[in-house]
Design a protein that fits this description.
Elements lengths: L1 H32 L10 H17 L1 H20 L6 H25 L10
Pfam family, one: ATP-synt_G
InterPro entries: ATP_synth_F0_gsu_mt
Protein name: Mitochondrial ATP synthase subunit G protein
Length: 122
């Protein structure tokens, strides 16, 4: 056990040295490649202003997203009314979508329980 801990410590030390040596180069390169997205001056006030802009832009997009939801919902209602004309392909797609939703639900439950399959931690 002690040898594994020493091994882990040496790997962590090597990783830390690599990041300290090459991290600034990568940081500068990343900033240079994405300079068109940087808002000048890069201050806290600018960040707060951008956060407010993002919040209110998302808030303004709610009516459009609500309209899209109701269009999709009406499409599903129409498909349900005319289910006799439903193709096997459409039913398969709907079944796969339902299965995917269930899988994401299960993954969320497992993550919420602290990555256990049997139950919650006491």
């Amino acid at each position: 056990m002690a040898s594994k801990l020493q091994q882990l410590q040496s790997k962590a030390c090597q990783a830390s040295q690599f990041v300290s040596k090459h991290g600034t180069v990568y940081y500068k390169q990343l900033l240079e490649q994405n300079k068109q997205y940087i808002k000048d001056p890069p201050t806290v006030e600018t960040c707060n202003e951008l956060a407010k802009q993002l919040f209110y832009t998302r808030l303004a997009s709610i009516p459009g997203r609500t309209e899209s939801f109701w269009k999709e919902f009406d499409y599903v209602k129409n498909m349900w009314k005319h289910r006799q004309e439903l193709k096997v392909e459409d039913a398969g797609i709907a079944a796969l979508f339902g299965l995917e939703c269930f899988a994401w639900f299960c993954a969320g439950e497992i993550i919420g329980r602290g990555f256990t399959f049997t139950g919650y931690y006491p």
